[in-house]
Structures are given as structure tokens and as C-alpha cells.
Amino acid sequence: MNYLVKTSIFLMAVLLFASLMWATNLAALAQQSFSNVEWTQPQRIPSPDDSSSWFPDLAVDSHDNVHVVWNETKAEENRDLERVFYSMWNGKQWTPFNDIVAPQVDIIRNSIAADGNDILYFVYGWLNLFYKTAPVEKALSAAAWSTPHRINTRTGSYASDVAIDGSRIYVLYDDAGALDENSPCLSGCADIFFRTSLDLGNTWLEPVPLFPTSGGSARPQISVDTAGVIHASWDEGWDRLSGAMSPERFGVYMNSKDGGKTWSEPTIVTHPAQSNFQTTAGSDGRGGVLLVWRTDTLDYPGIYYMWSTDYGQTWSPPKTIPGIAVRKGDTPFDTYSLGADSAGNIHLLAAGQSPDKPDYPPQLYHVVWNGQSWSVPFALYDDVGAPEYPHLVIHNGNQIHATWFTRFTDTNMPHQIWYARGKINAPQMLPTVTPTVTPTPVPPTRTPTPTVTPKPTLPPQIVQAAVPGDAVDTIYTENDDLWLLFKSLLPAMALIVVVVVVIRIFRS
Asked: Residue 276: which residues within 8 A CB-CB, separation 6 or more?
């Protein structure tokens, strides 16, 4: 064989090898690029050492200051004393914490958001739900907050969430549903209500019940994507105030494309069993909607998800997120948190455990969905104390901020709140300044008399089937590791074959 032919064959072999390398590593390279987040070391937010700090939420203003509120519970003789504390991170240090809600014996749950004019919107309460506002530069002083105004109308609220879109304020909350003789709750199990203000909280439209049922509703979450679409998710089948639990527990997702005037048909999430909870929704603002949830039994140890590219009209079959197992179901208060960056990737914070280390303490994982696949899970928090109730905010499209609290197995140890931030490899988006609205007096909220109204019965097709029937549970197992190992060794195997072929050619 002449030299020219040998050289040609050799070059073709090298080209073949390079192609194999490129094809094998393409997915890994893509995964690395979309999951590129540089996290800071998590830090404990200063709070009292003799009381429990928990249920934090956060907002970020136009100057990148981080505003955190949380519930502070101190055990007193024969009762607990409840407060809401506030602190701000200015990029260098935390301001001294201060209570912005008068101490009381009732539980306080809270949520917070910031608008483009650097005004904070704070929703809080227990049974009765209130909101008030403060400019970010004065929020440390309790006196700077506006007079509280009541949002709910039925005196049965536990949890709420708030989102801002221009001059509109959206609040999603649970409140006592209408009385029903079949309800396990004496005063009516909770339903989920949506309420909106079109003028930055000066006036409010009437509350809208989104999906009334008789079994109780919990864990409401609301967000607005870059296209202005409102996304609402929550869990059905549990009533926090009464403790009543239905045998049919499932997640619900709905969206609105017109500011809450009309809503989509509900997406009912019952796969893989009628014991689902922690249902959470995130959107890329381009039609993509991601739903994440889990069950309350370790018979299904995966964290489930499904994906829609048309705002929830159709869905992919549900699968489990690779590399994460659920934390043990030892708390009814945990949640997941989702948010999209400017590149359209959706970030998830979830407390969970490594599938390979089921006895290892829970960790807080950060993982990213790019519309086709998940990044490798990153353990953001891996320290003493089980992480719980994570909340994330993506600011300017390329900053990610996160809070959570830790719970210890020793019940005498107070809960602690934590914070971390990261830089996302995505374009920066500048915040939009909202035109100010002239304040007008807020009329008192009318409290209607509860009436007996019929509750809808879930149709058999919803009770029996969650999503498309061809859905297959895809728990990440050691078989996946073996497949990844095979793909990793494939280039080396190809190289050996190429070397053997080339040697034989030159010897011929």
C-alpha cells in the first residue's frame, strides 16, 4: 500500500475518532454550559440564639440589596411568642434584625416582593391575612411600614404568596371555603383564592376561588413570567388549620394570560399515587412550564416533573429528576422553589438526598432544567441541620438568591435561617421602573357570611389517571451510572480500535 493511501486512511481514522469524541461529549458539554452557576458559600443570617428562626422569604431591589423576612418563635411559659423579623444584606453585611410585626401568640406566616420603584410588599398573618408596604431604604424601621390592610375575607388563612407585575399586585392564599355538610372541617376546609390590586395596593378586586373542593388546600405559590402570564400551583387534600387530610391528595396548576380575569383549566397531578404534595410551577416566559412535585411516601422516592411547551395545554409524561431522592417525609411544611433565568433555563431548589446514600442527612440541591434535560445536582447546603422551605429569586436574569431554614433532630436546638447567592452564566436584564400610582384611601374589606355551596366531585378520569397513560417512572438507578460509565469509556475504546487498525495498515 503506497504512502498516500496510508496517510488518507490514517486521517480518516483520526476524523472518525474526533467525531466519536464530539458526539459522546456533546450532551455533557451542553449540560455544563447551562448549569454554570457560581455560588457563594452559604451563610447563616444573624438572628436571636434563644428562639427559632424559620419560614424565610426574600426580595431583591434595584440596587441588588436582599431583603429577608422570617417568623421568629420564642418559647415562653405556657405559650410561644411569635414575631416577624426583617434584615437586609447590602452586599457586605446584614443589617441588625428588627421585628416589623407586633409580637403575638398566633402563628405568623409571611411572604414578600419588591417592585421596580424599590417598594416592598409584605403579606402576613394567621387566620386574618394582611399586607403593608415600605420603601426599601426605610424598611428596617417598623414605623416606616404602611398601615396594615386585610386581604382575606373568611378568617381561615394560613399561607400566602405574593408577586408583582408592573403596578399589579397578585396574592394567592388559602382561606376557609364555603360550608359543606360533607366537609371534615367544622368551619369549611381551606380553598385557594386569588386576589389582585391594579394600583399597587391602593384598591383590591374581589377574591376569586380558583378550584373549590371539600378536602382542603395548602402550599399556594404564585409567580409571573416575563410574558406577564400568572402561574399558580398548590396542593389539594390537606387542611392546615384543622389537620384534616383527604385520601385523595394531588397537585393543581392553573395559569392566567389576562391578569387574572380568566384562568386555564386546572392541571391535576395524581401520578404516581394519590399522595402528591409540594407541587411547584415555573415558566420560561416562552410557553414552557415546568411542574415539580413528590409523594408523601418513600414507596416513590423520586422527585417528579413534567414539562409543557404550550403553557400547559399538553404535557410530557412525568419522570423523576436524575440524581436526587426525596427527603424523608418528616415535615408537612417543606416546599420546592422554581425560577427562570434570562436564557430560559429554570432553576430548582429542593431538599433531598442522594439515591446512593439513603441514610445520609438531607441536603439542599440546586439543579437546572434547560427544556430538554437536567443539570447534575449540586449540593448547595450540606451541613448540620436538615434544610427546609427553600425560596429563590432570580434577579436581573443572571443573579440567583436563596433562603431556607434548618431544623435539627434535637428539638431543643432552635431553627436557623440561611442565605446564599450565585452568578448565572446568562445575559443581564435591567429592571423595569413602574410608574407610581397616586395613593387613594383603601376601603375596609367586607367579610361575607359563609354559605352552603356544592363542592365539585373529581371525575373518575382525574381520580384514576394523572397524566398521559404512557407515563413511565424513571427513577435514577445504578443502571444509569453504568450507562454513563459505558459512554465515558466509549472514546477510549474507539481510540484503541483506531490505533490497532492504523498499526495493521502501516505493517501491511
From this structure: 235, 249, 250, 251, 269, 270, 293, 294, 295, 296, 304
- Strand order across the beta sheet in which 230-238 lies: 217-224, 230-238, 245-256, 267-269
pTM of the model: 0.84
- What value does the mean pLDDT of the chain take? 85
Task: Pull the grid cell for residue 253.
Answer: 396548576
User: Which residue from 102, 146, 151 is spatially nearest to 130, judged by alpha carbons?
Assistant: 151
Query: pLDDT for 218-244, tens place per residue?
Result: 999 999 999 999 999 999 999 999 999
**pLDDT tens, residue by residue, 205-215:** 999 999 999 89
* All structural domains of the chain with their residue ranges: 61-324+346-361+368-377
The confidence score (pLDDT) of residue 494 equals: 59
Q: How far is CA 250 from the centre of its chain?
A: 17
- Pairing mode, if any, of strands 276-283 and 302-308? unpaired
Residue 478 CB partners (closer than 8 Å, separation 6+): 356
For residue range 460-479, list pLDDT tens digits in order. Answer: 444 433 444 333 343 344 44
Q: Which long-range contacts (CB under 8 A, 24 or more apart) does 91-97 make?
A: 91/64, 91/65, 94/45, 94/46, 95/140, 96/46, 96/140, 97/45, 97/46, 97/47, 97/48
Q: HEC profile for 442-464?
A: CCCCCCCCCCECCCCCCCHHHHH
Question: Which CATH number does the domain 61-324+346-361+368-377 belong to among 2.60.40, 3.40.190, 2.120.10, 1.10.3470?
Answer: 2.120.10
Q: How far apart are CA 470 and CA 274, in angstroms?
A: 18
Residue 440 neighbours by CB under 8 Å, 6+ apart: 199, 202, 203
CB 401 within 8 A of CB 416: no
CA dist 263 and 313 (Å) reads 12
Condensed to tens digits (0 to 9), the pLDDT of residues 145-202 reads 999 999 999 999 999 999 999 999 999 999 999 777 677 787 789 999 999 999 999 9
d(CA 264, CA 253): 9
More confident residue, 222 or 448: 222
What single-letter amino acid sits at 134?
A
d(CA 339, CA 422): 13
Please report how the helices 478-507 and 3-34 are oriented relative to each other, as an axis angle in degrees rounded to 10: 160
